[in-house]
């Protein structure tokens, strides 16, 4: 194999944690400084690799939550702790500012939004599935884009809302952006609906009608993504305009 | 079963190819279904993953890493379609 072919291969890089933000009791954002970061598109992800002293390795994907890029060379990951998980508790509980994390990316060019796409955008996220959708919201703002954006965000309880303050501020300040929450376990005081999972009524009422030909992005636990995509198609949405990303789980 | 999709293969495929294959369209060798590689249903995770057709559930691609090598079985793909560079 020629040297050129070898050197084109995707390399693992070292990111240094420069900041940590607690988003909810079980979700943390890590700000990573990655030298020679080439930039990324909203919706892309990276792969993280942990190596134990005995050489055992575990690899997981994490969406990039930040828009590209201010300041250059930083990448933000937002990780939800799964108590019985192998990798996520390390990222949410153990990693400290100054620690190094091995990663490769940005990767994945399909579940992405570019500001040059003109249709309205419907974002539907369950739990940590909001992370790549937040990158799209931030990118829209950074690019001063005006396409209507609507986020339908399914969470267990009000305490589980990630980026809560930022979402409130953006909805107030950025014309054409709105957010609808769906609470699956506990709704806030005075909420009109009892807690429930996302269903056809929710998507019919708060999503956009199929005639809007929205670019639709659905992300979250695998069962959430499948249910949501099935409902959208049943409601008459064009399957070719629905992009899905499954985070795993049941 | 912790099922993912073809998006999660992006890193492992980028390590082999010079273009992002998850955006390529595949034609399933079993049923003729066509879609983006990102829409494949992915079972297992590195070092051994199996991607199945979302339409007929037959195996489209297997990726296995062992002994410092990567093995890619693509017999379930009848055709891949990608934009040409510069196009
Ligand atoms: C493209 C992509 C992007 C992702 N982006 C993010 C992100 O931005 N933030 C984030 O927190 N996670 C994200 N994930 C999920 C992440 O890769 C890991 O799967 C997750 O952190 C769990 O890893 P773990 O090692 O802690 O758990 P594991 O040890 O892998 O699993 C522990 C248990 O939890 C179950 N499980 C695994 N994944 C999930 C899940 N997603 N939801 C519920 N149960 C699960 C398993 O079946 C198992 O029973 C993404 C996944 C993909 C494929
Ligand atoms: Zn098929």
Supply database-style keywords.
heterodimer; A: 250 residues; alpha/beta; Elongation Factor Tu (Ef-tu), domain 3; Rossmann fold; five-stranded parallel β-sheet; 6 helices; 22% helix; 32% strand; globular; disordered N terminus; B: 87 residues; mainly beta; five-stranded antiparallel β-sheet; three-stranded antiparallel β-sheet; 1 helix; 6% helix; binds flavin-adenine dinucleotide; binds zinc ion
What can you tell me about this protein's structure?
The complex is a heterodimer of chains A (about 250) and B (about 90). Chain A contains six helices and eleven strands. Chain A is an alpha/beta fold. Chain A folds into two domains: about 5-105, Translation factors (Elongation Factor Tu (Ef-tu), domain 3), CATH 2.40.30; about 120-245, Nucleotide-binding domain of ferredoxin-NADP reductase (FNR) module (Rossmann fold, 3-Layer(aba) Sandwich), CATH 3.40.50. In chain A, strands 4-3-6-1-2-5 form a six-stranded antiparallel β-sheet. Chain A starts with a helix and ends with a strand. By secondary structure, chain B is mainly beta. Chain B has one domain (about 5-80). Helix content of chain B is about 5%, strand content about 40%. In chain B, a hairpin with a 6-residue loop joins strand 5 and strand 6 (about 60-65). Chain B is globular. The interface of A and B includes residues 46 and 250 of A. Zinc ion binds near residues 56 and 58 of chain B.
């Amino acid at each position: 194999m020629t040297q050129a072919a070898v050197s084109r291969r995707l390399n693992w890089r070292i990111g240094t944690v420069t900041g940590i933000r607690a988003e909810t009791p079980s979700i943390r954002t890590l700000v990573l400084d990655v030298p020679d970061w080439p930039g990324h598109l909203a919706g892309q992800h990276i792969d993280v690799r942990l190596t134990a002293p005995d050489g055992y390795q575990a690899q997981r994907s994490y969406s990039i939550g930040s828009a590209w890029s201010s300041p250059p060379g930083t990448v933000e990951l937002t990780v939800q702790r799964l108590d019985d998980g192998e990798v996520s508790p390390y990222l949410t509980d153990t990693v400290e500012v100054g620690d190094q994390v091995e990663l490769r990316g940005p990767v994945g060019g399909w579940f992405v939004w570019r500001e040059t796409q003109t249709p309205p955008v419907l974002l539907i996220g369950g739990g940590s599935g909001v992370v790549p959708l937040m990158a799209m919201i931030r990118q829209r703002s950074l690019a001063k884009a005006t396409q209507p954006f609507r986020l339908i965000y399914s969470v267990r309880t009000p305490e589980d809302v990630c980026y809560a303050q930022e979402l409130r501020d953006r909805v107030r300040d950025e014309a054409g952006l709105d957010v609808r929450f769906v609470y699956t376990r506990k709704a806030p005081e005075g909420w009109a609906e009892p807690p429930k999972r996302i269903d056809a009524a929710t998507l019919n009422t708060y999503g956009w009608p199929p005639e809007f030909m929205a670019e639709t992005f659905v992300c979250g636990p695998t069962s959430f993504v499948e249910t949501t995509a099935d409902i959208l198609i049943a409601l008459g949405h064009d399957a070719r305009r629905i992009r899905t990303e499954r985070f795993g789980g049941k | 079963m912790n099922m993912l999709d073809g998006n999660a293969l992006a890193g492992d495929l980028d390590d082999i190819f010079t273009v992002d294959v998850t955006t390529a369209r595949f034609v399933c060798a079993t049923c003729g279904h066509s879609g983006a590689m990102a829409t494949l249903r992915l079972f297992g995770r590195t070092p051994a993953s199996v991607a199945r057709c979302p339409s007929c559930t037959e195996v489209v691609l297997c990726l296995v890493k062992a002994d410092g090598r990567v093995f890619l079985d693509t017999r379930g793909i009848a055709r891949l379609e990608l934009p040409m560079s510069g196009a």
